[in-house]
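Q: Please design a sequence for this.
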């Protein structure tokens, strides 16, 4: 009877060991499944981005080829250069006049036009009136 009790106790310990081993294996499987899911999501996101980038580059190339076929690239460059010259002369008129408000701008001596001026002029030319700028106060 005693040997049967010892054998039963040994089998219970063996069963407990197997349960722990199975639990660890289940944890490893679930971790691997999660990691594979993250990798799949990352791959899908990368694939979508690459497809978008290829389409975007194709559209840019088509537009560039279309403008080149129409001879518009040189026209657009001419328009931009002309606008820069006109805007520089307009700005230099206000800077050279007795307006202290524009002389204190750090970009007043530079030939580059700051982005906020570009945005303002493209929205509406009357939106940027140099006399209303009070940066020296």
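A: Design:
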């Amino acid at each position: 009877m005693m040997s049967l009790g010892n054998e039963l106790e040994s089998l219970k310990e063996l069963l407990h060991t197997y349960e722990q081993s199975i639990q660890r294996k289940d944890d490893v499987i679930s971790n691997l499944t999660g990691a594979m899911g993250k990798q799949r999501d990352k791959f899908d996101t990368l694939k979508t981005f690459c497809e978008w980038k290829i389409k975007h580059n194709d559209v840019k190339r088509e537009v560039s080829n279309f403008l080149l076929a129409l001879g518009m690239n040189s026209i657009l460059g001419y328009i931009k250069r002309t606008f820069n010259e006109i805007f520089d002369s307009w700005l230099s008129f206000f800077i050279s006049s007795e307006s202290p408000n524009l002389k204190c701008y750090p970009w007043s001596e530079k030939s580059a036009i700051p982005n906020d001026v570009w945005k303002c002029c493209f929205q509406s030319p009357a939106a940027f009136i140099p006399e209303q700028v009070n940066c020296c106060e």
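Q: Thanks. Anything notable?
A: The chain has four helices and no strands. The helical segments are 2-70, 72-96, 100-103, 115-123.
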